[in-house]
Design brief:
nine-stranded mixed beta sheet; glycosyltransferase; Glyco_transf_61_cat; Glycosyltransferase 61 catalytic domain-containing protein
């Protein structure tokens, strides 16, 4: 699906064709100078691929006992993620995907504990969990350790929806930050379902959260022993942190400051034209090629330039370096993009910047709100949105206006199983 927004269409993003202009003009002043930048290609894969079927897969089976409760926090207590804290002597055998609670060290009888866990969030999403390895948690009388560690470990999966930039942050990076920050780097990460390119992409973040080597645990033939272990990651909500649920009172403000330090980002606040006379605000357009793309991005660029903006265009994909994307986004004051994973990059914007989400056909208002509108406001960004009209969609070149794909796109998708 493609969209064409001319100047009138752009202005009509809001009632009376005028609401967007004041929003942009909040930063706009002076004459127009084009400062266009094109970074070829980070993932703009659709966050919308989460429209999947759900079922109660109940991946965890616990044996209730007082001794078990002393050692483990109930592994199924998190509403979204599979999460378990184990205290005491723990042995991890990667080649058999087994976590053993050692009776000799904990006093729990062998065989009294037995369950399985998939260490990934979205535990009720079948599509995600089918891509995550199951781990067995048992109690054993004695285990011989090949390597004994003095710091805790966190085991998490890089399966599921990793590779989609939105899910990389919402399912993994932010939950990992929430879960590991309490250790101040004194924790070791054990990765199952490893994707080496993912480690490379987020290496700076991982190194800031742990001072120890990351272990691709599935490939380990040796038994690793730890005094404490967390299986899975804590998850609060889409692309966000609920401070009331964070034991150490973390918030998205803390996370965004962490990102600025990690990537040495220079700007903490967006430009204020009243206070920064002579400086031009920068407007970033997130471009897409394969689906839900602009067909007249040049017109949009010229319109923004006429309003006094320096315009930056990036088309990130899975191979784009995150450092360059973070620096480019942080240098901008307004981010504009069609609903999709590319909008996730708003995490790098300075405070008080503006996010404008273009919402396509398809009755996805709920997703648009949950994935980007609410997170943007929680990040102390100013949020605006524009809902595409049928006449602005390239679908009108293939279907008549009264066709179901135009009139009720969501029902069309459900009926035909298409996206």
């Amino acid at each position: 699906m493609e969209f064409s927004l001319d100047a009138c269409s752009w202005h009509s993003a809001f009632p009376s064709c005028s609401s967007l202009i004041p929003a942009l003009n909040y930063l706009s002043f002076g004459s127009s100078v084009h400062d266009a930048v094109h970074i070829p290609s980070q993932s703009s894969m659709d966050a919308g691929n989460r429209i999947t079927t759900f079922k109660d897969i109940s991946p965890l089976e616990k044996l209730e006992s007082s001794s078990t409760k002393r050692i483990c926090n109930a592994c199924n207590c998190e509403p979204i993620s599979n999460y378990c804290e184990i205290n005491g002597g723990i042995a991890v055998q990667g080649n058999s995907s087994t976590i053993s609670i050692v009776s000799l060290w904990t006093g729990v009888a062998a065989g009294k504990i037995s369950w399985t866990v998939k260490p990934y969030v979205r535990k009720e999403n079948t599509a995600a969990m089918d891509l995550v390895k199951s781990w067995s948690v048992t109690s054993m009388g004695f285990v011989s350790c090949d390597l004994t560690r003095t710091v805790p470990a966190i085991l998490f999966s890089l399966g599921g929806f990793s590779g989609n930039h939105f899910h990389d942050f919402s399912d993994l990076v932010i939950p990992l930050y929430i879960t590991s920050k309490q250790f101040n780097g004194e924790v070791q990460f054990l990765v199952t379902d490893n994707r080496p390119w993912w480690i490379t992409k987020f290496e700076r973040i991982l190194r800031k959260l742990s001072r120890y080597d990351i272990i691709d645990i599935d490939r380990e033939g040796k038994t690793h022993c730890y005094p404490r272990m967390i299986v899975g990651l804590k998850y609060h909500r889409e692309l966000g942190i609920d401070r009331s649920k964070s034991g150490n009172q973390l918030s998205m403000k803390d996370f965004r400051q962490f990102l600025r330090r990690t990537y040495s980002l220079k700007r903490a606040k967006a430009i204020k034209t009243r206070d920064d006379a002579g400086k031009r605000p920068r407007l970033l357009i997130i471009s897409r090629r394969r689906s839900r793309s602009f067909t007249n991005i040049n017109k949009i660029t010229r319109m923004a330039m006429s309003m006094g903006y320096n315009v930056v265009t990036i088309e990130p994909n899975i191979s784009t370096g995150l450092v360059s994307v973070a620096e480019t986004v942080n240098s901008c004051d307004v981010l504009v993009g069609i609903h999709g994973a590319g909008l996730t990059n708003m995490v790098f914007l300075p405070d008080k910047a503006i996010v404008i989400q273009i919402v396509p056909l398809g009755c996805i208002d709920g997703l648009a709100r949950e994935d980007f509108a609410e997170p943007a406001m929680d990040m102390k960004l100013r949020y605006l949105e524009y809902k595409i009209k049928a006449k602005e969609s390239s679908l009108t070149s293939k279907y008549k206006v009264e066709h179901m794909v135009i009139k009720d796109h969501y029902q069309f998708i459900k009926r035909d199983g298409k996206q």
